[in-house]
Amino acid sequence: MQGLARQGLTGQNRGNGPASPPEHPLQAGPAPDSAPEDSILDGRGPLFDQIKRAVAGQILRGRWQAGQRLPNEAELSGLYGVSRQTVHKAIALLAREGFLVRRRRAGTFVATSRRDRFALPIEDIGDVVARDGRVYEFRIRDRKIFRNGEGLRWPDLPDGTPILTLECLHFSDGTPIQHERRLVNLEVVPEVVDESFDVVAPSRWLVDRVPWSSADHTVRAVNATAEMAALLGVEAGAACLSIRRQTMHLSRPVTLVHFLSVGDRFSLSGSSITDSATELNL
Amino acid sequence: MQGLARQGLTGQNRGNGPASPPEHPLQAGPAPDSAPEDSILDGRGPLFDQIKRAVAGQILRGRWQAGQRLPNEAELSGLYGVSRQTVHKAIALLAREGFLVRRRRAGTFVATSRRDRFALPIEDIGDVVARDGRVYEFRIRDRKIFRNGEGLRWPDLPDGTPILTLECLHFSDGTPIQHERRLVNLEVVPEVVDESFDVVAPSRWLVDRVPWSSADHTVRAVNATAEMAALLGVEAGAACLSIRRQTMHLSRPVTLVHFLSVGDRFSLSGSSITDSATELNL
DNA sequence: CGAAAGATTATGTACATACATTATTGCCGA
DNA sequence: TCGGCAATAATGTATGTACATAATCTTTCG
Description:
The structure is a homodimer.
Chain A: H1 47-60, H2 73-80, H3 84-96, E1 100-103, E2 107-110, E3 117-121, H4 125-131, E4 136-147, E5 162-172, E6 175-185, H5 202-209, E7 214-223, H6 226-232, E8 239-249, E9 252-262, E10 268-271, H7 275-279
Antiparallel strand pairs in A: 1-2, 4-5, 5-6, 6-9, 7-8, 8-9
Helix pairs in contact in A: 1-3, 2-3
The structure holds a DNA duplex.
């Protein structure tokens, strides 16, 4: 369906274009070579998406170099034969995605260095194991209630706040793959004390129940201590991936968790954040 | 400045609101209690941002639960006293950020599970070291040119493609912290053969020169081999963070790099992707 | 009763218009 | 020449309007 006819406008302009004559044949079919530029839209999907593709393409294939200034919205509007608002939407989205930098009065520029980040999925370990076609199990090893500062301290929490601590092991086909030590802020999630975690794992329970608005992560490599090595069934000193994550909700810490995973049984993988380019098949 | 007067409209509606009378006092100051709901805008920033905040707030503080259906655009328009397009923009942005799911005819719903990912910055190791106030140095240990398949193979590249290989060590205050082994596709970046890398490190050079449109990462923990341990100045078997990254440009692999960093001298940290909430101070 | 056809509704896109905002540019006068 | 101010050019926001698109709901007919 999508991809043949241009959104609405079945066949002719509505007659109020951006002053310029209706010269650009946005439709795919006819007028095969009447394009002086090669920056012509492809007729697939909404107009603003076509413009995004066209502009991102110019950038990614180096036609518009980093730091260079783009034609302004009015010019692009004429170039592509669409209204300024449509151009604006496309360009604003590209700017939001980090391809472009815009400054009022100054113009629009190709971003010199993109905010290069890569994204790693936060997956429930149970899902990962299941997706691998293996049998997932977990075991709660310990469960206590503390007040912060009495016996342990959660740095970002005021002393005296009640905390539930959980220690848990995760298995794949019976082999231990991850150790989890978790603190839960009982002021934010009091109902967790009534949950036995016989069936559903703490991580899954929390994910399903508690919204979060931000999280901080630290990933490190550590050698397994003797104790951890014993739990995970590896030799002492084996390289392990250590992930510490604190989740916040409404500026209050919800849970602080520390995962320790055996190096050769677990890895994180993901792709760069800049979805747009991959979305655009560039 | 920003934050007192509402965008334009200095003091009165332009008189074409969404049919409903001008009852909602969007301005901060007067009319202190005439709000039956507490979902009133705060007057800070553009209208569509205020709406985003208001809606995201309702969700994050649980007033609108996961899976629940929101009022439609027309109703929200009336509720907040703005046009449907403004509501549309706010809601569409929240949907793009993963807070909401929209289905034509069906309506807008609070997303049940957010696409939970976390973002780690792709930083130049030199920047990281410099930011720590330490002295950064690097040393090229090896540099060769191969054809793919002859002596080594880059899986995603056709055999015979010319490849530059680099081996490099990175130092912080004279201490080795990271080993880098890199392959560069000479078909994409032929000019790299003329670069000596006496001054600028390969990663930095590539970042500054070659755009990329996507990248894949894998992060693992490994024990240092004897050879690596010697290079990095640690004991054999020390836990190291291994990062493999392949960067693509226009569907062609550009560079494949393998970093090995000493576990207790290097860590990755970052925050969750859902910027919106943090942007909104929620 | 059930399936197909049509009406309805909510979101999606496009365009025009108008004005706000903000640097930059350039002029002008001290 | 330099400092400040006004004109200007670019993006940013808000609204109205119109129609497209896609589900869902309703009705009708076999």
